[in-house]
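Async update (no meeting this week)

Hi team, since we skipped the sync, here's where things stand on the single-chain job. The sequence we agreed to prioritize is pasted below, unchanged from the tracker. I ran it this morning and attached the output directly underneath so nobody has to dig for it. Comments welcome in thread, and please keep replies under the output.
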Amino acid sequence: MINAAHSSLSRHAKGSEARVRVFRLALKTSRFCLDKDALDAALKVLESCSEYASAEEQGSPVVRMADDDTDDQRKVLQRHAVQYWLLRTMLASKNDRPDIAQHFYSKVDQTVLMGSADLMETAAEICYESGTHLLSRQRNDAGKQWLERANALLNTNDMDDPGHDCEDLRMDIVATLVEILVKGSDESDLGYAWNLAKDLGEKHGLGDRLAVLNMQLAIALQSDGTEGRVVPILSRMVKTIVLTEDTFRM
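Output:
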């Protein structure tokens, strides 16, 4: 499909414009395959993308494509390169190879990544999905590492004005981390979990969400010497939550 897309472009567009289009198509296709857990198909698309990208310059496969690229085209290709390595990271994680995932993630151009809020959100989402998959495979240490990386990406200064989707992602990341930490009942882990949940309210304005209050309550009930935290949390729940059938069940 990728090769057919390239062949269908006009002869005039066979340069950088063609590379951008085919690269973008390959990335979208591979992400779709990954979301559907069609890992073999995702690998084939990504391999095709890598071979295509490296055709003109073997020494730097997915960053520099051709000497005639304009600055804008190079920037687009660099963004695509970041997305490419992130998708290779996600594929390796879903194949239960966190070592290879780490190798691919190390290839991400951090300057390009940190210069784009939407790329950082994409990276955080992929790190989160990689982490949750590894957790489902009982690879707890590796899964926790990827979740912490996802949280760190969302906590960078360039993500100070996140959208609604980013807030939901942040909640999912912290909720999963807290769940892991609370299971261990280790006091240092519980302290870490408490700080994560507290930051959702103090730094990100999410403290009145029921999910955050539930996190804090779960941590307080597991911790030693924190009896004084339970009553204020319950009181805040009563004051801030509209009682419905769904919230009552929670």
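Quick observations from my side:
Residues 55-66 have pLDDT under 50 and may be disordered.
The radius of gyration is 22 Å.
Reply here if anything looks off.
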